[in-house]
Design goal:
Helix content is 40%, strand content 19%. It is an alpha/beta fold. The structure holds guanosine-5'-diphosphate. The site of guanosine-5'-diphosphate (GDP) has 23 residues, from helix 1.
């Protein structure tokens, strides 16, 4: 069994490779829930939906959000009638979100995800990191912002001074998934807003210490491949590099995968992490995704 810790962009790219070479019934994917909230009356768990759509080959992988080829009739109509929405939710995607909202009322988030995964024909387990409500605030030079306001309304532009999030308890099955795995893969997701929330839950770091853990760095050179990770790391005084990423995971990490471009960091990283693997990590086609996934699987002792 293999467990993957995931956010909603970098790790799903790796999942596209992994699902080609690993039997999906051998995969647990623990997904960040920190940014989950209600928008336009529906529960939006963007990272979970991205993982579900990725595994079901439905993802719009231009934006790593929503369903490919979706229409936006409801979104546009809401604007026309004076009810604009912050998130651009597609029609089919909205159907998933309505269903999830109804399922949550009845069964809670974990079971809702399980039912939706089964409906999409998935054999893997998609496990929300927590079933508890959470909150994340981006402290900026223009004030305290909700995560999606920072990301969308303010286009990630304000200077970030701090990132604060609430601590939640792991969902049932999260610790067991880690304990019962031959390896845990930390995908190249935002270390601050996608991975740290998972790591900060009670029992997660301890469980990881007893498992083989391999992480792919989301930082190449001194910047993230996409998104605000580097801004968030800077705000928290963490070196924006694969070394900075390694320091966040060093108490449990066995192997860090960095990009060819960062070969010069190998020695420094070797002082923190047992093994450093160097390869092409820019996942701009399926070949790279599969190669990276294969390298990771081959590294499992
Ligand atoms: P979010 O939930 O949308 O923030 O997405 P994630 O946390 O899963 O992923 C965002 C991170 O993925 C960013 O820090 C990027 O640097 C990283 N990322 C995206 N694409 C790639 C890629 O092809 N290679 C690597 N190494 N990192 C990537």
């Amino acid at each position: 069994m293999i467990t993957v810790l995931s956010g909603g962009t970098g790790t799903p790219k790796l999942l596209q490779g992994l699902k080609e070479i690993v039997d999906p019934s051998e995969l647990n994917i623990i997904v960040n829930t920190l940014e989950n909230d209600y928008f336009s009356g529906v529960y939006v768990s963007a990272d979970i939906d991205t993982v579900l759509y990725t595994m079901a080959d439905l993802i719009n992988d231009e934006f790593w959000y929503g369903i490919k080829g979706d229409t936006f009739i409801t979104h546009e109509r809401l604007k026309e009638i004076g009810c604009p929405e912050l998130l651009r939710i597609g029609d089919k995607d909205r159907a998933t979100k309505i269903q999830k909202t109804l399922l949550i009322e009845k069964y809670g988030l974990k079971k809702a995800c399980q039912i939706q995964a089964e409906n999409m024909g998935l054999a893997c387990k998609v496990i929300p990191m927590s079933e508890q409500d959470s909150d994340i605030k981006i402290i900026t030079d223009i004030g305290e912002l909700e995560f999606h306001d920072f990301l969308i309304k303010h286009q990630q532009e304000p200077e970030v001074l701090d990132v604060k999030f609430s601590k939640v308890l792991p969902a049932d099955g999260v610790i067991d998934a880690i304990n019962n795995s031959d390896a845990v893969i930390i995908g190249p997701s935002n270390p601050i807003t996608s991975i740290l929330p998972i790591l900060s839950m009670e029992g997660v770091r301890e469980a990881l210490k007893n498992t083989y853990v391999i992480a792919v760095s989301p930082i190449i050179g001194s910047d993230s491949v996409s998104g605000p990770a580097s801004k968030f790391m800077k705000a928290l005084d963490i070196d924006v590099s694969s070394v900075g990423v390694a320091t966040l995971y060093k108490d449990f990490l066995d192997n860090i995968v960095i990009d060819n471009e960062d070969v010069n960091l190998e020695q420094e990283l070797n002082q923190i992490i047992n093994k450093v693997t160097i390869t092409n990590t820019i996942m701009n086609n399926l070949g790279v995704k599969k190669n990276l996934a294969q390298l990771i699987i081959d590294s499992i002792p």
